[in-house]
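Hey Z.,

So I finally got round to the fe (ii) ion thing we talked about over coffee. Here's the setup:
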Amino acid sequence: MAADKLRVNIFDMVASIARVIDMMSPVVGNHHMQVAYLAYRLGEELQLSDDNKFELFIAGALHDIGAFSLQDRLDLLEFEDTKPGEHSVAGSLILQTFTPFSSVARLIKFHHVHWKNGEGAFQNGESVPIGSHIIHLADRVAVKLSRKAPVLSQVRGICRAISEHKGDVFVPEYVDALINMANREHIWLDIMSESMEAILKRTVLYWTKELTIEEMVDFSRLVCRLIDFKSKFTATHSSGVAAVAIELSRLSGFSKHERRLIEIAAYLHDLGKLAIPSEILNKQDKLTDNERFIMRSHVYHTYRVLEPFEMLSVAGSWGALHQERLNGKGYPFGLTSDELPLGARIMAVADVFTALTEDRPYRKGMDSNNTKAVLQSMVDAGELDNNLVDLVFKHYAKMNDIRDSAQKEAIRDYNAFQTILHRHVK
Ligand SMILES: [Fe+2]
Ligand SMILES: [Fe+2]
Ligand SMILES: [Fe+2]
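And the result:
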């Protein structure tokens, strides 16, 4: 394998994202993996190709990724899907920016379209992929599942509820496939099993792909949008951190390859925010103690989500350690200076610098004198790396320009995303 190629297990990556978005609330359970499992099994029942079944798995695992608030997520757990438009379009708009996921994005865009006795093959002049109807059916079965009674006692009731909408909501052939599956007890026991993800992983043909480092950067940028676009307050944050971190790593003598890794680290450093409801990210008042603890835990989630990926081990740990401080007073590990690699120190400085200087909708960014004073006080307290902060001071104007233009570009992306979103859901 060429040095600039990374072997990536797409199953593991997608499953990790599914897990983190379902951390938003215990009420949500493991909805995304359940839908992925059911959609995959329906694909088997319908004898679809391996590629199509794999797409069903990915789309099932990510289908509600555009539902940013806890309230949206809870609403979507109601069987009657009355306000489904926005999250489907939001998810698909973001996913389509990564070319290998463009067909998955189409499945997600239409995953709440009703069949309407055939009219649902199209929506607004666009053809609706059959996979969207399969995800819809899998999703509606999943929301009916309850932990309050043995799953096998629920199967008949669920099949009856779904059959009542055969034709008007669901494709008749897919309802038949579900009814055929009803007798296979293992499917229902699998869905409720603690080991469901492991079982699915053994079932799905592995889709291991070799990505170039550039493609990995693109994938990370997609994840960055998923994280940042959750709230208008964070919409450009990781893009700004990336620009600053790349510049700091260049000034520190990092090679081109290492600068790519630092870019990936920056895009993923707030990955754990996928688990934070947008209600908390959007809050302008002071956070309550509980909200602060939830917010703080995002760094831990970033670390644990990225930890299993060998090909991300360097970039992942740099990103996930951005709240560690040299004096051991950071979190979540309380590491000290001899345990913190230069990449992690760069991430910490880039994150603080960006957070201080960026404009937020409710406040202007800090000017250079105040920013420098805060950074110096953090160096004096033994929190940030002295040499890196010196580099910031020496190249302050350029560093700030680089951050500002990266964030201006990101806000253009975000505004375009919002415009298309509103056009679609009008
Ligand atoms: Fe949905
Ligand atoms: Fe769903
Ligand atoms: Fe951050």
